[in-house]
From TrEMBL:
The keyword Nucleotidyltransferase does not apply. GO terms for cellular component: plasma membrane. It is found in: Cell membrane. The chain crosses the membrane at residues 26-48, 54-80, 101-121, 146-167, 199-218, 238-256. One of its GO terms (biological process) is G protein-coupled receptor signaling pathway. This is G-protein coupled receptors family 1 profile domain-containing protein. CDD domains: 7tm_classA_rhodopsin-like. Keywords: Cell membrane, G-protein coupled receptor, Membrane, Receptor, Transducer, Transmembrane, Transmembrane helix. InterPro entries: GPCR_Rhodpsn (IPR000276), GPCR_Rhodpsn_7TM (IPR017452), TAAR (IPR050569). It comes from Nematostella vectensis (Starlet sea anemone). Residues 6-254 form the G-protein coupled receptors family 1 profile domain. Its main location: membrane. It is a multi-pass membrane protein.
């Protein structure tokens, strides 16, 4: 419920206030939609554990994996957008448009969903690609795991790391510079971009910390480290629980760091309170007239 409310509030605010629909905010809005999918996934896992019925465990796990991939590629897109904003501030508004960001987001969603479809294909057609089939060969299982891990996790991870190393270097260099008169406007623009980048860095840092335990656990299993089945199951459940908490970090951190977003939330809540007061006042006046 907390995940759904927090991310739903971001969506409502973005819908109500058109001034917030910047390219970077559009990406964050798309992340909130992915985060909201995690809420029913967690509920489904809880129901299966409580009832000890795991009929749809594979489908739910694959849905969770697909959402994780979508979020990772969103964070990669945000990192690239922030680097371009800092590196080319004068060309940013002309190159990075809302339309292009939306097209990139559509590609991310479609690609991640399509890449997960082979896992649901029956073994009569492509059994070697089905994660949940017990009769698949060990070699095909390892090959698919390595390919998925490199393409969907390691490659985006290193892109994000390199992007924010560059942002950190620019931030340190800017602090050492002395702003002359002809550099003031450029420095102010760059400072705003750096503040936005720091907000994104906090979001991405919390995301990576959330997923680090799960990545370590899955890596141990992937490289055939000796773990008992019960130990691995317990560690995996803990890892997935921590990983799914990332759905909370985005709205909380973004609302705390962004002044325009906080102001929009206050205005939205104030408008809602005024509407409630008007409804209560009109109801009381009608009751008074009826008497």
């Amino acid at each position: 419920m907390v995940i759904a409310f927090a991310n739903g509030l971001v969506s409502v605010v973005m819908y109500k206030f058109q001034s917030l629909r910047t390219p970077s905010n559009i990406v964050l809005l798309s992340i909130t939609w992915a985060d909201m999918i995690i809420a029913p996934v967690l509920l489904a896992f809880a129901i299966m554990i409580a009832s000890s019925k795991y009929t749809l465990a594979c489908a739910v796990a694959m849905l969770n994996s697909t959402v994780i991939k979508i979020i990772i590629f969103h964070l990669t897109l945000i990192s690239a957008e922030r680097v371009y904003a800092i590196r080319h501030p004068l060309r940013y508004n002309r190159v990075v448009t809302v339309t292009r960001i939306r097209n990139a987001l559509c590609v991310i969603w479609v690609t991640c969903v399509m890449s997960s479809l082979p896992a649901f294909v029956d073994d009569k057609f492509r059994g070697i690609l089905a994660y949940c089939k017990q009769n698949q060969s060990e070699y095909s299982f390892q090959a698919l795991d390595y390919f998925t891990g490199v393409l969907h996790y390691l490659f985006p991870f290193w892109l994000v790391v390199v992007s924010y190393v560059y942002i950190a270097r620019v931030s340190l260099r800017q602090r050492k510079q002395v702003c002359t008169r002809h550099m003031i406007s450029h420095a102010r623009r760059q400072a705003r971009d750096l503040k936005a980048a720091k907000t994104m860095a906090i979001i991405i840092g919390l995301f990576l910390l959330s997923f680090l335990p799960l990545v370590v656990i899955l890596s141990l299993q992937l490289f055939r480290m000796r773990l008992s089945s019960r130990t691995y199951e317990k560690l995996t459940n803990i890892g997935y629980f921590l990983a799914n908490l990332c759905a909370l970090w985005n709205p909380v951190v973004y609302a705390y760091r962004n002044q325009a977003f906080k102001g929009a939330i206050r205005r939205l809540l104030h408008i809602r309170r005024l509407a409630i007061r008007r409804d209560v006042g009109s109801h009381r006046s009608r009751n008074h007239l009826e008497r």
